[in-house]
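Page 42, continued from yesterday. The earlier attempt failed because a stray header line got pasted into the input along with the sequence. Redoing it now with the clean sequence only.
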Amino acid sequence: MRSSYDKTSANSSHIEEFILLGFSNFNTKLQLFLFPLFLFIYVFTLLGNFTIITVATLDSLLHTPMYYFLRNLSFLEICYISVTLPKLLQTFVTKKKTIPFYGCCAQMYCFFTLGVTECFLLAAMAYDRFVAICNPLRYFSVMNKTTCLKMVTVSWVSGNLISLGQTASIFSLPYCGPNLINHFFCDIPPLLKLACTDVRANEIAVSVTGFLVLPLPFSLVLYSYGRIIAAILRISTNTGRKKVFSTCASHFVSVTLFFGTGAFTYVRVKTSDTPDNDKILSLLYSVVTPLLNPLIYSLRNQEVKGGLKKIIAQQEEAGTRAPAKHGTRKQADPGVPRRRK
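This time it went through. Structure tokens are written below.
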């Protein structure tokens, strides 16, 4: 953090682009390994989340509040990982590691809009599971279409407004050089280090915002899962108890990873003396959690797998019917004379 700067220099020079160092400080062999790894993660995440959206949309049995939230989460994860990973992949294969000033601004805005939205959406999903397990008889009356729509809308609107305020405050700071961002995307902590002015007020604002959008929603998640665990322990059959607990445990691990790494980064705004550790933390909530979503909600979900099999079977059946219709075209009987027009 810089407490003072040369105002004349700041006013006469303005950074037009930043250089994202990414993982360029890693050795070449490791970079050659990281590129295919990140490419595989990106493709798998896109395919997995697209599959969830497709199955939950086409299978009428999955038109429930849970899968309504899941479709929104899958769409959000596709956008979330697409904000950072393509640029990171580009830095591996090309020498161009620069990003325009306003491109950096747009990346930060999109990234934090999606991140904050996911915080509120995960809290809404935890509440949905709480009502479904702890109050099943009133589930569809409590989690009706209007309620679900309001919860999703509030999540997206809150994400946009909070991100807009943070992005505007960060990019209104003077940046007069250097322009090297020791990160793989435009994140708040490394950008604050580049500002040539006192940023203590910005650090406090980011910490307060981080507390509002991370620990508070996570508290609701903890409360919901605490009630869920208490309800699970009352289930009489071991099979039913293990099934529900296994599903909720995998959800909770993913949610805890997202909130925990995010809180450590933004509630504790100041970057550490080891930027590589900050990059690893960022990878956990920006790359790993979008990857876990399809693993948890599709590969481990019998309803999604059943819906996918049904859709594939319907497509195969439709494919076999089409040639049959063309091949059995009704021909005129040669023994019956045609009527003249």
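Notes: Residues 50 and 208 are 35 Å apart (CA to CA).
Reminder to self: strip header lines before submitting.
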